[in-house]
Task: structure prediction
Amino acid sequence: MGCLFAIVAGFFPRVALVVVWLTTNLVDRAFGPWILPLLGLFFLPFTTLVYVLAYSPVIQLGNGRWLWVALAFLVELAGYAGTGRTNRRG
Result:
């Protein structure tokens, strides 16, 4: 089941984030108000999903967990840059 969720999260991060938000309390623990994850859902869904999954209430994002969030952000920026480059060619 975990591998299936990882595949869905890789291809459809918005769907995976909504599923995590509705079925667990991980999003509420990682973010205080509901507006921040909602903005993340629209603008940076993959980064928000990785942040939610990496966050721990005891150590927050210590022990190298920021590295995963930064990597997700770079992957997301690369996707946006590739889309922008493709749109300029047309």
